[in-house]
Amino acid sequence: MAEDEVGAPLISPKMYEEMVLPYESEIADFRGGLWYWHSCGDTRDFFPLIKKIPNLEMVHISPWSDDGSAVDAFRDMLQDIAFERPLNPSEELLEIPEEKIESNLKKLKEIYKRCTKIFL
């Protein structure tokens, strides 16, 4: 599911819960689960709702979301769910000193240390 319209401030978590999640869940039920859920937006307030999608295998955590919120929301599923966390090219990779890149990666590694499936 590529849900780039899902994220603050485009829609609220309440709107997502009422108008999007039921259909995503229906698709997941029909297909036996969802392999991947994606949004490039800030989805930190949506994580507890996204977690309700049946048999979800991987969630995209955008650089504009909060990594700690993602791990907290999925804390009881950390052995089963995969996280994809791409780097923000300008703010986490290209326009900063190499030492800061290393520091950022160590910080992300620490946040996701309890996760068994993480793709950076």
Which descriptors would you attach to this protein?
mainly alpha; three-stranded parallel β-sheet; 3 strands; 120 residues; 7% strand; globular
Write up what this structure looks like.
- It is a single chain.
- Strand 1 (58-60), helix 4 (67-73) and strand 2 (82-84) form a beta-alpha-beta unit.
- This protein has one domain (13-119).
- It is built from 6 helices and 3 strands.
- The longest helix is centred in the last third of the chain and has 14 residues, at 98-111.
- The model has no long low-confidence stretch (mean pLDDT 90).
- The protein has a 3-stranded parallel β-sheet, with no helix packed on it.
- The chain is globular.
- The chain is mainly alpha-helical and 120 residues long.
Characterize the biggest β-sheet: 3 strands, parallel
Helix and strand succession?
A: HHHEHEHHE
**C-alpha end-to-end distance:** 19 Å
Cα-based radius of gyration, to the nearest Å: 15 Å
The gross shape turns out to be globular
Q: What amount of the residues lies in strands?
A: 5-15%
Q: Calculate the mean pLDDT score and round it.
A: 90
Structural class: mainly alpha
pLDDT < 50 runs, ≥5 residues: none
For the record, the count of structural domains works out to: 1
Side-by-side strand order of the widest sheet = 1-2-3
Write a concise synopsis of the structure shown.
With about 120 residues, the protein is mainly alpha-helical. The protein has 6 helices and 3 strands, in the order αααβαβααβ.
